[in-house]
């Protein structure tokens, strides 16, 4: 399925070669021949596999999942032969019942005998219902998978236990091993996750007919490899209906980062929506389980197979998070709840996406060239992206490198030390003598410079990409924690599913709050999106007036540097959504912003925006006062960004429903501001002594251990600093490619 995703390399190469005139070298023939070979393989695969061909539909799931019943219904609908492994293969092979065989040979021998029977069986164009234990035998599952689509019937655990009690089944492998049925079913789940191609969430109370229809829909989606595509926010639909629309697959959108016309990639179709019953199935699930189910709906298996995606998610949200709940929700006071997004290795919400995104990126890229990731950071992204990409495998790090550009004097001392200290063999930091807006704009211009990007591709076999939230692969994982927060409130009994909540988010680049919008589109009942700004309140002004105005507006440095942003990139995605995907309007508006530093949207769009959004801003004094009052009232320390959100939530939320305040960073990163807010006089200390002093207050949340360890590092790492000149930034990019990627590759 992945072969069809390499088409973009052909297009990139053609574009680069046609736009520049430089001598080719040894990288070029390798790059081109690999691209075209993969394109031909894609054509071959697609021509030999289709739903109406000889592939089997294979139903997998625990005992009592309804595989046999659902299989019969699907067989009738499709006019296909129906094969039940228990009745039609095992019992006929053994000339005895499954329960008799299990009793005769025991658990381990039964699995071997069962596997051998399946290995000796072959079928095509059939519907096959597996036994609950088939997935525990690798060889037989590989045998079945060669000519079949494996669909996992994911039934709620308690539903299975209830069904098995009624059925009084006595032929489950391991049933008499001393494990409880609940433990046995949980143990089995690891094998089901290993093999499935598509998953069907079976709602409590759903009829077999409804499950059968869902299976057929999932099979159709799996086979339709071209069904889920992405367009640029500046894409203009061709007047000639026969003209081909310029679309990208998920893997292409992730690799390219920014669209060639300067727009951002968005799904061509609507976001997938879960039913009420499917959401309720996730109330008792872990963060990892929720992430896998939601992201499976948003990423086609042709781009990332479900089993591989699951492995990535488990790796991303593993031991590197200090809290097992990953993104827990804490009741603060009254109707306010704190969504703690700072338990990752670098102590900010960016970890929730940047521990996963590098694995997604590494999976999507072809093996034929190097990739250089360019990132602009207003503080937290820098260390998070360096940390995330440094966790790739050794082979992946030889082909994927990262440069993060940060405003040399525009972030906290701790953030700078954290960014510089996060440098690794494939991850570097460059300070820029300007602000975040310059860094972000410069990177966008570098991407649009086809002469430069083409030169890097042909001369060094290196392609540029991004890991800022302009990259879809970076933004998408953020949807999960907004959905998970709501489910946690349901799980903890604060609300029932379907009750509305508001969310209040400190907002600079609009990515975090946009992810909450996407969570609502998937079915989470969010009532209002409260946009919280600091003194750089261009977004608040825009939401109130519809006028985005940067004229005579200077960036102010605040206690909350991660939202010290004036040009909000992801706003373009939301305006595109509100304007019914009017790419022509987006081009007009953002060209006006670029050339004239302001734009105004029509009244009808302002009204549409204000139906869901409210906004306000917080002064520096109000920020410090909120940190102080919250600590005195509850013993909880807010970081400055979260304090901005709390001030705005207090002011704007009507208290008729819960409000979830996103806590986007741990206070340990901003110790001087916290000490000033709490009126602690001993501010002029080392970072580690400041944190130890704050730790002595025994406040919530406790000190972030990974951040504390960072302050103990005595060795100061070197980093480069450059002037605010796009040509100087381009020179740094080329030099690092020469010295690091190509130099190490040639060694």
TrEMBL record:
One of its GO terms (cellular component) is cytoplasm. It comes from the Eukaryota. Keywords: Pyridoxal phosphate. The keyword Membrane does not apply. Its cofactor is pyridoxal 5'-phosphate. InterPro entries: P-loop_NTPase, Shikimate/glucono_kinase, Shikimate_kinase/TSH1, Thr_synth_N, Thr_synth_N_sf, Thr_synthase-like, TrpB-like_PALP_sf. The modification N6-(pyridoxal phosphate)lysine is found at residue 350. Residues 246-317 form the Threonine synthase N-terminal domain. The keyword Nucleotide-binding does not apply. Belongs to the threonine synthase family. This is Threonine synthase like 1. The lineage of its organism: Eukaryota, Metazoa, Chordata, Craniata, Vertebrata.
């Amino acid at each position: 399925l992945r072969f069809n995703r390499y088409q973009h390399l052909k297009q990139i190469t053609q574009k680069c070669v046609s736009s520049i005139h430089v001598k080719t070298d040894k990288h070029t023939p390798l790059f081109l021949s690999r691209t075209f070979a993969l394109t031909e393989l894609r054509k071959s695969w697609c021509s030999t596999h289709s739903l109406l061909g000889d592939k089997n539909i294979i139903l997998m799931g625990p005992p009592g999942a309804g595989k046999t019943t659902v299989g019969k219904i699907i067989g009738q609908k499709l006019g296909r032969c129906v094969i039940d492994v228990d009745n039609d293969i095992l019992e006929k092979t053994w000339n005895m019942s499954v329960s008799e065989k299990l009793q005769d040979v025991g658990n381990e021998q039964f699995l071997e005998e069962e596997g051998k029977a399946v290995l000796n069986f072959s079928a095509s164009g059939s519907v096959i219902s597996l036994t609950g234990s088939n997935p525990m035998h690798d060889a037989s599952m590989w045998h079945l998978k060669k000519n079949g689509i494996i669909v996992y019937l994911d039934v709620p655990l308690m539903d299975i236990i209830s069904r098995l009690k009624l059925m009084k089944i006595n032929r489950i492998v391991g049933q008499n091993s001393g494990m409880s049925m609940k433990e046995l079913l949980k143990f089995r789940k690891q094998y089901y996750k290993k093999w499935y191609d598509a998953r069907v969430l079976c709602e409590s109370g759903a009829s077999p007919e409804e499950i059968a229809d869902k299976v057929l829909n999932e099979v159709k989606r799996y086979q339709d490899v071209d069904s889920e595509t992405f367009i640029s926010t500046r894409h203009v639909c061709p007047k000639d209906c026969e003209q081909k629309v310029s679309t990208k697959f998920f893997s292409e959108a992730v690799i390219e980062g920014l669209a060639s016309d300067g727009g951002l990639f968005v799904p061509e179709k609507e976001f997938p929506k879960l039913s009420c019953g499917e959401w309720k199935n996730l109330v008792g699930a872990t963060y990892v389980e929720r992430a896998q189910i939601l992201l499976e709906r948003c990423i086609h298996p042709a781009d990332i197979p479900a089993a591989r995606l699951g492995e990535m998610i488990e790796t991303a949200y593993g031991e590197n998070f200090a809290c097992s709940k990953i993104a827990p929700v804490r009741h603060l006071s009254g109707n306010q709840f704190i969504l703690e997004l700072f338990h990752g290795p670098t102590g900010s919400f960016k970890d929730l996406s940047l521990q996963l995104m590098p694995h997604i990126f590494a999976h999507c890229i072809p093996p034929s060239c190097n990739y250089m990731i360019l990132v602009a950071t207003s503080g937290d992204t820098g260390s998070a992206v360096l940390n995330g990409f440094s966790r790739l495998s050794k082979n992946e790090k030889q082909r994927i490198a990262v440069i993060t550009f940060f405003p040399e004097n525009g972030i906290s001392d701790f953030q700078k030390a954290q960014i510089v200290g996060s440098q690794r063999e494939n991850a570097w930091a460059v300070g820029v003598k300007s602000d975040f807006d310059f860094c972000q704009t410069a990177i966008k211009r570098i991407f649009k410079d086809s002469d430069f990007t083409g030169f890097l591709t042909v001369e060094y076999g290196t392609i540029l990409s991004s890991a800022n939230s302009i990259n879809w692969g970076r933004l998408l994982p953020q949807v999960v924690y907004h959905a998970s927060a709501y489910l946690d409130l349901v799980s903890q009994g604060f609300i029932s599913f379907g009750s509305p909540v508001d969310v209040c988010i400190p907002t600079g680049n609009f990515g975090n709050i946009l992810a909450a919008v996407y969570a609502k589109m998937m079915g989470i009942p969010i009532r209002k999106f409260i946009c919280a700004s600091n003194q750089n309140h261009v977004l608040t002004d825009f939401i109130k007036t519809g006028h985005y105005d940067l004229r005579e507006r200077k960036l102010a440095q605040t206690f909350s540097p991660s939202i010290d942003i004036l040009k909000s990139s992801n706003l373009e995605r939301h305006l595109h959504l509100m304007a019914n995907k009017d790419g022509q309007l987006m081009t007009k508006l953002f060209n006006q912003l670029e050339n004239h530093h302001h734009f105004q949207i029509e009244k009808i769009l302002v009204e549409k925006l204000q139906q869901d959004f409210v906004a306000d801003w917080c002064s520096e004094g109000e920020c410090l006062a909120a940190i102080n009052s919250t600590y005195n009232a509850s013993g909880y320390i807010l970081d400055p960004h979260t304090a901005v959100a709390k001030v705005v939530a207090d002011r704007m939320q009507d208290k008729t429903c819960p409000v979830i305040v996103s806590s986007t960073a741990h206070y340990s990163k901003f110790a001087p501001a916290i000490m000033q807010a709490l009126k602690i006089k001993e501010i002029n200390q080392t970072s580690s002594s400041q944190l130890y002093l704050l730790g002595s207050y025994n406040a919530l949340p406790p000190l972030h251990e990974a951040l504390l360890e960072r302050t103990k590092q005595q060795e100061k790492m070197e980093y480069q600093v450059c002037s605010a000149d796009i040509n100087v930034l381009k020179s740094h990019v080329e030099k690092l490619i020469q010295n690091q990627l190509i130099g190490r590759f040639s060694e």
